[in-house]
From TrEMBL:
Residue intervals of the DUF2262 domain: 12-169
One Pfam family, short name: DUF2262
Name of the protein in question: DUF2262 domain-containing protein
Species annotation: Sebaldella termitidis (strain ATCC 33386 / NCTC 11300)
InterPro entries, per the entry: DUF2262
Amino acid sequence: MNFNGIKIEKANFKVSDVFSYEGTVQLWDKNTSIALDFPKDKPEDEYFDILAEKITEQIKWIEENREKIEKALTDYGCISLAEDWASSAEKADDEEQECYIMEDGQKVFFPISEEEFLNSLYFESISIDFRSDTENPEIELFISCSPDYFAYHVLHVSADSEKNVKCRGLAG
């Protein structure tokens, strides 16, 4: 299966000590780590072959539902959360506008606009869990920001088997 130039085949993934398989895909214009979990009633490589199309569908769903994911983050209050975290960083005294220097060295000016916040988002990693439902797996998304508003923490977002998206707060 091809999606965004990535071939979803076993050759693009490796067996993992923690998950069934791990690999990398291109999502939201960045390379993203992906973990796959399969039921234990068959060999994992057999499941990979059986579910290759479903894996591609899930990756495509994530790529095509950015607005839904972003809405879950804004509804949760992640922009004000970003301002709370950023305001605990070192204040930049040489700026006319309120500004803080994040741990990654980038400057953040207040207030943080919705556009700035949403443009900062990228996937740190994703997990697709087929263990309880091979037709409608659950998805866990771990989203970082650049600038790093949350001091090396990530936003945790989940999509259940019906693709209801929910922000679960910070992780890490």
